[in-house]
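For reproducibility, we list the full input for the NAP complex.
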Amino acid sequence: MAMLLKGADAAKALTEQLREQAEELKKNGTEPCLAILRVGAREDDLSYERGALKRCEKVGITVRQVVLPEDAGQQELMDNIRSLNEDERVHGVLMFRPLPKHLDDEAARRALDPRKDMDGITDGSLAAVYAGTDGGYPPCTAAACVALLKHYNVPIKGKRVVVIGRSLVIGKPVSLLLLAEHATVTICHSRSENLPAICREADILVVAAGKAGMVGAESVRAGQIVLDVGIHVGADGNLCGDTRFAEVEPIVEAITPVPGGVGAVTTAILASHVIEAAKRS
Ligand code: NAP
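The corresponding predicted structure, in tokenized form, follows.
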């Protein structure tokens, strides 16, 4: 049976460290503050927002919720972004995307001050991930993958990592973050040939394809560590990931459950970014 890499354990340990840092900041007169900017009420956004609120409360971060109606105009959105950029009491901003279709997502993304970009959506943040500098904040889910591996003391240096997915939110940034940890990284995508054979070469397999159950026994071998980033509602109404867990789990050494794996660490990473931004301010 594989070891389960439980996100809650990693998140709890991180939360305890962050709470101490938040207290220290407050003693020195800084109240760490995250603004959440949401347009409309998409179920995904609301679910993430609930998780973020809970996590921030545990750490001792103040959250300011800025909610615009679904039919908000571009000017109203840009005005809110500008005012959060300028507000010195706000250390970080989490702006939910995708925005409703009538809004210019790209303009909104570009308007956010990279120093306040807590989820790696601006070019400034992505450039920092690319350059391997600590000037920005990587996308939270990508950073959560690395944090989970580190929490469980999974060796990364020198190991062969295969990432399925090349999105700007997960695939590319997690590949670069693991490269910075000295892994040998292969990035796969929908045009990759012989995908199962490439996956079987991995010591660590990160699956972020957004396709429910696409990775099964054919793509894994004994001794591997598997991070399943996918989240889907299965045909039975339960949450499931990109791997066929029942098939993969008996073969590999360790695997993240879905739910309760990578996703559970994401809000702890968000909180860590806010604390870091508060320290830098
Ligand atoms: P995305 O933008 O749809 O990207 C999916 C990537 O997977 C693309 O690069 C795509 O390749 C590749 N891919 C798709 N089908 C493939 C196949 N059959 N073989 C090989 N590669 C394939 O998705 P995303 O935003 O990165 O999200 C990935 C998953 O993570 C989703 O299930 C999402 O719900 C989940 N997620 C989880 C969290 C969390 O906190 N746990 C947070 C965000 C997202 P091409 O580039 O060639 O199209």
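Residues 141, 164-167, 169-171, 188-192, 195, 208-211, 214, 229-231, 262-263, 266 surround NAP (CB under 6 Å). The chain is about 40% helix and 15% strand. Both points were considered when choosing residues for closer inspection.
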